[in-house]
Amino acid sequence: MATNPETDLPPTNHDEARRSFLRQSSLLTALALVPGPVVHAASAELDETVAAAFEKMPLKLEINGKKYKFSVEPRTTLLDLLREQLHLTGTKKGCDYGQCGACTVHVDGQRVNSCLSFAVMHEGKKITTIEGLADGDKLHPMQEAFVKHDGFQCGYCTPGQIMSAVACVREGHADSEAEIREYMSGNICRCGAYANIVAAIQEVKQGGQKV
Amino acid sequence: MKAQNKQIGTPMNRVDGRLKVTGAATYSAEYQLPGLAYAVLVGSTIARGRVSSIDTRAAERAPGALAVITHFNAPKVPGFAKGQNPSQPPTAGQPLQVFQDDKVRFNDQPIAVVVADTYERARFAAGLVKAQYVQEKHQTDMTVGTRQAFQPTQARKNPKSPVADYQRGRADAYQTAPIKLEAEYIIPTEVHHPIELQAVTAHWEAPDRLTLYDKTQGTIRTRNDFAKEWNLPEANVKVIATFVGGAFGNGLHSWPHESAAIMAAKQVNRPVKLVLSREQMFTMVGYRPYTWQKIGMSATPDGKITALTHEATGQTSTYEEFTESTVQQSRMMYAAPNVNTRYRLAALDVSTPIWMRGPGEATGAFALESAMDEMAHQLRLDPLEFRLRNYADQDPENGRPWSTKFLKECYQMGAERIGWSKRPLTPGTLRDGDWLVGYGMGVGTFGAHRSKAQTSARLLPTGTVLLQCATTDIGPGTGTAMTQIAADTLGLPPEKIRFELGNSQFPTAPTQGGSSTVNSVGAAVQEACLALRDKLRQLAAASNSAFAVAQKEDVVLADGYLALTGNPAARANYADLVRQPDDALVTVESKPSEEQKKYSMYSFSVHFAKVRVQPLTGEVRVSKLVSCADAGTIVNLKTAANQMKGGAVGGIGMALMEAATIDNRFGRYITKDLADYHVPVHADAPAVEVLFVNQPDPHVNALGTKGIGEIAIIGVAPAIANAVFNATGKRIRELPITPDKLI
Ligand code: FES
Ligand code: FES
Question: Which domain holds residue A75?
Fold first, then answer.
């Protein structure tokens, strides 16, 4: 919770803080101009609902080729947005601290640890997750190679490994086994399928297919 | 006619590979349930004492908060009320009953669970819970714990217990011998850290019906534990674990977070998901215990071991006695006349450990196999030659014959592949540029266990055979191996087999652990398929007399119809045979035979390591590992080799980097995540060459398997430590071998 400065507020003042936020909000001032009962309702039961709405931000993203409009809390990570709100659970949470790579997605073609970035930081960007890698029923060459070389065991790190592997090849960092190992080291596989993952990446790289 | 193996022994791709590479495989935190709420655990910030008060007001008023449960308001758990925690303790003691009293037994013990309608809100609210404590003096220091070690209750009660003291010949006979060594070895606490965080989704589908989507290695074990805990009929608890994102042992016990999620779901009357943080993975789901060991060994000048003493003290909690087979390998590996072992526990103010891959044997092998290397060095013998001179042709622990043992073959293959002949007898003499180079070996062994298992097999009208079993797959590829076994037993292509697992409502299977799944479930699958053939023959006999007199072995499952070998006229369409869904259904239970007891059944492995050590920085790089296994029949060469490589990588972690460290002043881990607790990454993983003897064992089961999972890691760490010695002349007896120990 250390990443959330809100936790440092004296706990009992929290509701107070929310209300004063509401009072000061210029939008709510505008609301004050509407008929009394509405405002009354807002300050009573709807308080939380209205507050929640004010605490959210609009966000537009293109995910796997599909355009989305959201209203999200600024503290929501891209990873939690994908997993908990869009149910795109192919992107995995392995640490939430940017240390394991299980959450790797592509943002405008770059590999990114989605746990380490807030969703709202990606306004207007194109996100590709593991679910968007295959071409319909036809697997991406990297996915094919992972199956063929058994580049996984439990499969939990796999989506992150594959997204990273695709980026690794695209970046031009897959020219040798040693280079692959170096540039894939942000993706931990606790099952230890490393040798097979490297073999899969090499095959894709050497096969020269478009990735 | 014996079924011909077409699939067994091939490197077939995994049946669930596509699901895993497309992100479609669903793990326990990924089930979408209506009204799903999120729970976050709050842990204690002291290691021992009492919770005097908890201020939950702010958390309760936080946006979206649905409930805050602490020991002050926790719902009554009927199983706890009976005075016993129904979840099985590892051996003795009382597993933690979460939120049932004010006692703090370890740092980060769950003291509250906060439930909210979104994950962010639950996490925020959890940060608002403030606890006050009455602190007591804690003890988390193993150097102190070891001095107060005690014999496990189990051993005191039963001298035949596997953790009781063992002796053949004279005890401690090494002490009076002219050529002897005595050395102490330490492995620190290590943590499983599967990449999937421990997660459970608890759903009360009715007031007396509970479904758990759980990261467990045993759906039946988990079902039974929580049925008892909530006083429910077993049939009313359903446990789903279709995909498990690694576990390495931490799914072998029921843990407080599961009880907390179930309580929370009851309280808010919604399904509740609880995922541990990486930090909580250190404290809430077990770990490999810190273990102190001492080996005493004596030998004749020509390299015969005359006496061996192995002592070990493992860490446990104050409330449960966790034991493991740390000293087992010393009893049976080498043919020494005088052998004794002592196993003790040290209770500290920490959470309870649990078996971690290769469990005690991997810990024990570090001491024994390091000592073997030390003695070989003292005798100026090649360590491989030294092991050959002490090779046990039968089990020296009990005098029984081995069911099979091809360890010599492993030695030979492995030595050749690593280039053992290049190993210098004098350490520190081989260089490659600035780097020192060394070779080392370590032997591993693990019991070839088999337990009772059930499987059902059903012919579907489409001609596909559906098999179901409650077993799990934490990564080895269980479903794939079972598909191969079924395909061969039925004479069908693998596409015609569907194997379903990870559901407690399927026929009962043992927990996936101890390298025993293929031994147990594989046998059940094979027997179920044979029973299905016979069932089909009987069904066909009703309309076609040729089937009535036929043997089940002659039944052929052709494309769309049943046939008989040597009788082209005999045919029965599946559509006619299977009119009701259960017409062609069999469920079998497969058990190990009494005959087995005449044998000692073990898998064996040897690992050879080549390392490079930078003398100025103390950096150790493993440049090559060769792992050879005598594990009986290998069902799938691809997945089995992968499992061996994975074990080798785990062994690199053990040898060179893994250590969970407690700051004893606070009794709290200072390693809190994967940046502090290092596990091997791509750059640490060398080429691993895997070699299998691949000879069936005729006694474990009809398939001839013995098990791989544990022997993949047992012996790897000492192989690396021995190679470091060979490279540098420095003997590191406390893992991990970090650079500071070499410079
Ligand atoms: S979950 Fe993002 S790096 Fe681990
Ligand atoms: S496949 Fe299990 S962590 Fe990589």
Answer: 57-130
